[in-house]
Amino acid sequence: MDEFDAAEVLRLYWLGQSDTISSQKIILAMCPFCGKGDRIHLLNHEDTNFLASNDNYWAAWEKLSSLERLPGICRFCLNVVIIRGGQAEMPG
Fold this sequence. Notes:
Layout: H1 3-15, H2 18-22, E1 26-27, E2 40-42, H3 55-64, E3 69-74, E4 80-84, E5 87-89
Antiparallel strand pairs: 1-2, 2-3, 3-4, 4-5
């Protein structure tokens, strides 16, 4: 699984979790896809029971997250971005 595939796995899951996304921490970084600067939410998997058995989701999460970067989602264009050093980047 490359980073683009991993981003799509996360995006498809979180699109169905709009209430959870809206409660996530907002990052004031510009989205590299649409240019909006106030719509990126950090993704957090700690509150989801479903994820314990979803190996595809965990593989995607491991691919996109590390100590230096975290996945987020732009609530305007609905694309997954990588947050690194306070800046949003495209996966890949």
